[in-house]
C-alpha cells in the first residue's frame, strides 16, 4: 500500500512538475516580459540605481521588518543553492553547452516575473493576527483578487508548508559531505558511530547521516530562531561572501585556462542554435536550459513575494526593481560561473543524469583541492537556502494557524532536516517537488491577473521620476 502511495506521489510530481510547470512559469513569464515592455532590460539601470540606495526614501519602520536590500539578499540566499551547481551540470549533461544560452534567456524572463512579484508584494501587503506586516501570494490573492479568492490563497499556504521544506538540501548536503570527506572504511572504523548506531539500531553510515543532520539542524536553529531580522542580517553578510568566493574560484580556472575561454562561449552560442539534429533537438536544448533556470531562481513560485513583503519599503515599484535583480544573480551570474568552470575543466559526456559529481570533478581538475573548496561553497549555498526557506514556511503557517501556533513550524522544520538527512528520499522528494509545483499555480494566476495594475503603477512611477 505504502509503495503504491509513494509511486503515485512520484508520478504526480513528474507529471505536474515537468512540462506543465515549465509552460506555466516560462510561458507566463514571457507574457509578463512582453506586456511590461521588456521591463527586465529597459529598467535594469533603474534597478541597479535602487540597489545602491540602501535606505530608500520609501522605507518606513512600521511597514516591515527588513530593508529592500536585505530582502533581496535573503531571497538570493534561498535561490542560490545546489541547483546553481548541480542543476547547471545536469543542464550541460542533458542539453550540452547550448542549454546555458537558454538559461540566460530564462533569467531575463524570470526577472520580469520577479519584478511583478515584488511590486505586488508591497501593493497588497497583509498583516498577521498580531498586526505585524506580512507578505506572500496568499495576501496578494486575498486583497488583489478579492475575499472570494481566499481559498486559492489557503491552497498556496498549504502547498508552501511542504514545498518550502529543504528536503533536497539536507539530503544532498549530507551525501556530498560524505563523498568528499569520508570513506566507507573510515566510517566502519569509527567507535563513535558504532556506539550511536548500536544504541539506535542503525548502521555506521546511517548513524553518520543522523549526526550530520543534527549538526545541520543546530546551525540552522541558531539563525532561524532569531526571526526574520537575524536571517536577513546573516544573509546580507553570507551572500556577498559566498558569491565572491565562488567568483574567485572560477576566475582562477579562467586565468589558468584562458586559451580555452573563447571556445567555451563559441560552443554556448553555436550549440544554442545548432540545427544539425533538427528543430526537435533544438527545442529540447532550449527547454532543458530554460527549465533548469526556472527551477533555480524560483520566479513565479511565490517565495520571493513572501520575503519582499517583509520589506519596510512602501513604494511598490521600487521594491519590484530590487526584486528583479535576483534572477540576474542566481540564474545569470552564478550559473554562468558554474558553466564556464565545467566546460573548461570538466567532462559532460557521461552516462546517465549526473550533476554535483560532474561539477566536483571539474573543480578538482581546475584548482588544487578544488573539490574540497567547492564543497565548502556547497555547504554555504545549502545552509543559506535553509535559513530563508524556514521563514517562508513559517509565514505560511502563520497565515493558516495564526502566530500562536505558526511559530512551532520552525521546530518542525528543524526536525525535518534531521529526518531527511537519514532516510531514502525518492518519494519524499517527489512530494516536495509536487507541492513546489502546486505553489506556482496560485502564484502565477494572481500575478498574471494583476499584471495590468503593475503596468499602471510602473507607468505612473516613471512618469513622476523622469519628469
Give keywords.
single chain; 467 residues; mainly alpha; two-stranded antiparallel sheet; 24 helices
What does it look like?
With 467 residues, the chain is mostly helical. 78% of the residues lie in helices and 1% in strands. It has helices spanning 2-16, 19-35, 39-42, 44-52, 68-79, 86-95, 98-123, 137-145, 150-163, 167-181, 184-188, 191-200, 204-224, 227-256, 261-272, 279-297, 303-308, 316-323, 325-345, 356-366, 370-401, 403-406, 409-422, 426-465, and strands spanning 126-127, 133-134. Strands 1-2 form a two-stranded antiparallel sheet. Helix 10 runs antiparallel to helix 21 (370-401) and helix 12 packs across helix 13.
What is the H/E string? HHHHHHHEEHHHHHHHHHHHHHHHHH
- Count of helix runs: 24
Instruction: List how many beta strands DSSP finds.
Output: 2
The low-confidence runs, each spanning 5 or more residues with pLDDT under 50, are 275-282
Radius of gyration based on Cα positions: 22 Å
What oligomeric assembly is this protein in?
Answer: single chain
Mean pLDDT: 79
Strand order of the largest sheet: 1-2
Please give the share of residues in helix. Answer: over 70%
| Largest sheet, strands/sense/barrel | 2 strands, antiparallel
Structural class: mainly alpha
Principal-axes shape call? globular
Through-space gap between termini:
67 Å
Sheet-strand content, in percent, reads: under 5%
Amino acid at each position: 500500500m505504502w509503495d503504491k502511495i509513494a509511486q503515485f506521489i512520484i508520478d504526480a510530481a513528474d507529471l505536474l512538475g515537468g512540462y506543465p510547470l515549465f509552460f506555466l512559469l516560462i510561458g507566463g513569464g514571457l507574457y509578463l516580459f512582453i506586456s511590461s515592455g521588456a521591463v527586465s532590460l529597459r529598467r535594469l539601470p533603474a534597478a541597479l540605481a535602487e540597489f545602491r540606495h540602501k535606505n530608500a526614501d520609501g522605507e518606513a519602520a512600521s511597514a516591515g521588518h527588513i530593508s529592500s536590500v536585505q530582502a533581496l539578499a535573503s531571497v538570493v540566499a534561498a535561490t542560490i543553492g545546489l541547483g546553481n551547481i548541480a542543476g547547471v551540470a545536469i543542464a550541460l549533461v542533458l542539453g550540452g553547452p547550448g542549454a546555458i544560452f537558454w538559461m540566460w534567456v530564462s533569467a531575463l524572463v524570470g526577472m520580469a516575473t520577479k519584478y511583478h512579484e515584488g511590486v505586488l508584494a508591497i501593493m497588497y501587503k497583509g498583516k498577521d493576527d498580531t498586526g505585524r506586516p506580512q507578505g506572500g501570494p496568499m495576501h496578494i490573492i486575498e486583497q488583489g483578487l478579492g475575499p472570494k479568492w481566499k481559498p486559492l490563497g489557503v491552497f498556496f499556504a498549504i502547498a508552501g508548508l511542504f514545498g518550502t521544506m529543504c528536503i533536497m538540501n539536507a539530503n544532498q548536503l549530507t551525501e556530498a559531505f560524505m563523498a568528499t570527506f569520508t570513506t566507507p572504511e573510515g566510517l566502519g572504523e569509527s567507535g563513535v558511530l558504532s556506539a550511536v548506531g548500536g544504541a539506535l539500531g542503525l548502521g555506521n553510515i546511517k548513524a553518520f547521516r543522523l549526526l550530520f543532520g543534527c549538526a545541520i539542524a543546530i546551525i540552522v536553529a541558531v539563525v532561524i530562531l532569531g526571526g526574520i531580522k537575524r536571517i536577513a542580517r546573516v544573509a546580507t553578510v553570507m551572500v556577498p561572501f559566498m558569491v565572491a568566493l565562488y567568483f574567485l574560484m572560477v576566475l582562477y580556472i579562467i586565468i589558468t585556462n584562458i586559451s580555452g575561454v573563447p571556445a567555451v562561449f563559441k560552443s554556448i552560442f553555436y550549440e544554442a542554435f545548432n540545427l544539425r539534429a533538427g528543430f526537435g533537438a533544438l527545442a529540447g536544448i532550449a527547454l532543458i536550459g530554460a527549465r533548469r533556470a526556472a527551477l533555480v531562481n524560483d520566479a513565479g513560485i511565490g517565495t520571493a513575494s513572501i520575503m519582499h513583503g517583509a520589506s519596510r519599503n512602501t513604494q511598490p515599484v521600487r521594491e519590484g526593481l530590487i526584486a528583479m535583480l535576483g534572477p540576474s544573480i542566481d540564474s545569470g551570474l552564478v550559473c554562468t560561473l558554474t558553466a564556464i568552470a565545467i566546460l573548461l575543466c570538466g567532462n559532460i559526456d557521461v552516462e546517465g543524469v549526473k550533476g554535483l559529481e560532474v561539477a566536483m570533478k571539474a573543480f578538482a581538475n581546475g584548482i588544487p583541492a578544488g573539490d574540497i573548496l567547492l564543497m565548502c561553497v556547497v555547504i554555504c549555498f545549502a545552509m543559506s537556502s535553509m535559513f530563508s526557506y524556514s521563514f517562508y514556511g513559517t509565514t505560511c503557517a502563520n497565515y493558516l494557524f495564526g502566530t500562536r501556533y505558526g511559530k512551532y513550524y520552525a521546530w518542525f522544520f528543524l526536525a525535518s532536516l534531521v529526518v531527511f538527512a537519514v532516510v531514502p528520499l525518492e518519494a519524499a522528494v517527489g512530494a516536495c517537488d509536487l507541492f513546489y509545483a502546486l505553489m506556482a499555480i496560485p502564484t502565477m494566476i494572481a500575478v498574471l491577473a494583476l499584471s495590468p495594475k503593475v503596468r499602471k503603477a510602473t507607468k505612473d512611477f516613471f512618469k513622476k521620476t523622469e519628469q
